[in-house]
Write a structure and sequence with these properties.
CATH topology of one domain: Chloramphenicol Acetyltransferase
EC number: 2.3.1.-
Family: Belongs to the 2-oxoacid dehydrogenase family.
Enzyme class: transferase
Oligomer: single chain
Protein name: Dihydrolipoamide acetyltransferase component of pyruvate dehydrogenase complex
Largest sheet: 7 strands, mixed
Mean pLDDT: 80
Pfam families: 2-oxoacid_dh, Biotin_lipoyl, E3_binding
CATH superfamily of one domain: Chloramphenicol acetyltransferase-like domain
């Protein structure tokens, strides 16, 4: 009997949601055949079997979220690689494959040595905490003994700690002004609604995963925010001049994003501290620049990675970006496409935003949002007014790693590189 465990689907991914079972208890399974579908905030993936055998038990229900490494199923394996035949003979055709009966709770033992499977009732795991949970408790000075656990055997998970912190914040918040006078605001108003006044939408597994990831990021890292504006009139004129020739030559459209990615990658080489993360009271600087790029679909936001972005030309970045965006919208991204990002660039300007405050991607020290390019009057040298193409560059940062001085210099470097493009230039 072997355990099939929840995989770790990404560098900063600590848990996954079992969306649906593809194999039922008692069904034969071949090695590498998918038995379940897993969803995280970054990717949807299939969980493969590790050997030939029979699926004996589901330890996790559909829609349940568990930590990476948690057993999700039990399998009876075949030593010969094929199902054992029933009867006294061992030859093929002596009878149909014998399917062992599903093991009862007493047939499996938990990690604490007690009988039962993961998720069974009992307090054997109640006092055991993962390193991630202990780290979170230290950061927020929380006593774990007082937090109810929803994990296996009552174990406290990261999600339990974050939910407890969220609840403590809500309880300590002042009551909304006017509530005592019968004025309905916010959640108070929602509570007073009748069933005909509201529509409750069940969040999809991937939306729930994104929500957990965002809450965790905000709780784990002290966010700060800063912004500069850049005059990209020369860049706009350059792209307008070459975009049709680029499409004919390369077979893909030339957007503004590759130019921004190039400027960011070169600026990260100049200021490598932004290409880092915070871990266990240390700053981990990444020597290679892997840019995570936010790609929106109808119901989710994916953040695939362009590896070694600083080594690519504008044309190379355009092809890499087009490939990742196409596969994201077609649902064909692989797990490795989502791993290893060191800095995130978010194109909020694609839907007309001119100002935003992005939330950090887990395991990174900063994220840059490129806002919409808009024409507006600008005071030029000699106090002359001119209509210029302007863009806001918004940077959120982990204040444990970065401060305003170095972040401002980084943004000035990105701005300088973008403003250096000219209509008669090249790429």
């Amino acid at each position: 009997m072997i355990e099939i465990k929840m995989p770790k689907l990404g560098e900063s991914v600590t848990e996954g949601t079992l969306s649906r079972w593809l194999k039922q208890v008692g069904e034969p399974v071949h090695r590498y055949e998918p038995i379940a579908e897993i969803i995280t905030d970054k990717v949807t993936a299939e969980l493969p079997a590790e050997a030939d055998g029979i699926l004996m038990r589901h330890l996790v229900q559909e829609g349940e979220t568990v930590a990476a490494g948690t057993p999700v199923a039990l399998m009876e394996t075949f030593t010969s690689g094929v199902p054992r035949a029933s009867g006294s003979g061992a030859g093929a055709g002596s009878g149909p494959a014998k399917v062992p009966q599903a093991a009862g709770p007493e047939s499996a033992r938990g990690r604490d040595g007690r009988s039962g499977v993961a998720g069974a009732s009992g307090s054997g795991l109640r006092g055991r905490y993962s390193p991630a949970v202990r780290k979170l408790a230290r950061e927020y000075n929380v006593r774990l003994e007082g937090i109810p656990g929803t994990g296996a055997g009552g174990r406290v998970t990261r999600r339990d700690v974050l939910a407890w912190l969220e609840g403590a914040t809500m309880q300590s918040a002042p009551r909304p002004a006017g509530a005592s006078q019968g004025i309905l605001t916010g959640e108070t108003a929602l509570a007073e609604q009748t069933p005909d006044d509201v529509e409750v939408i069940e969040a999809s597994p991937i939306r729930r995963a994104i929500a957990r990831h965002m809450v965790e990021s905000v709780h784990a890292a002290p966010h700060a925010w800063t912004m500069v504006e850049a005059d990209v009139t020369g860049l706009v004129r350059l792209r307008d001049r070459i975009k049709e020739d680029f499409r004919r030559r390369e077979g893909i459209p030339l957007t503004f994003m590759p130019f921004f990615l190039k400027a960011v990658a070169e600026s990260l080489r100049e200021f490598p501290i932004l290409n880092s993360s915070w871990a266990d009271d240390r700053i981990i600087m990444k020597k290679r620049i892997h840019l995570s790029v936010a790609v929106a679909t109808e119901d989710a936001l994916f953040v695939p990675v362009i590896r070694d972005a600083d080594r690519l030309s504008i044309t190379g970045l355009a092809h890499a970006l087009h490939d990742l965006a196409t596969r994201a919208r077609q649902g064909r991204l692989k797990t490795q496409d989502m791993e290893g990002g060191t800095f995130t660039v978010n194109n909020t300007g694609a839907f007309g935003s001119v100002l935003s405050k992005p939330i950090l991607n887990g395991g990174q020290a900063a994220i840059l949002s490129v806002e919409a390019i808009v024409k507006r009057p600008v005071v030029m040298p000699g106090d002359m007014l001119a209509i210029r193409s302007m863009v806001n560059l918004c940077l959120s940062l982990d204040h444990r790693v970065l401060d305003g001085w170095i972040s401002g210099r980084f943004l000035q470097s990105v701005k300088r590189r973008l403003e250096a493009y000219r209509e008669d230039g090249g790429i």
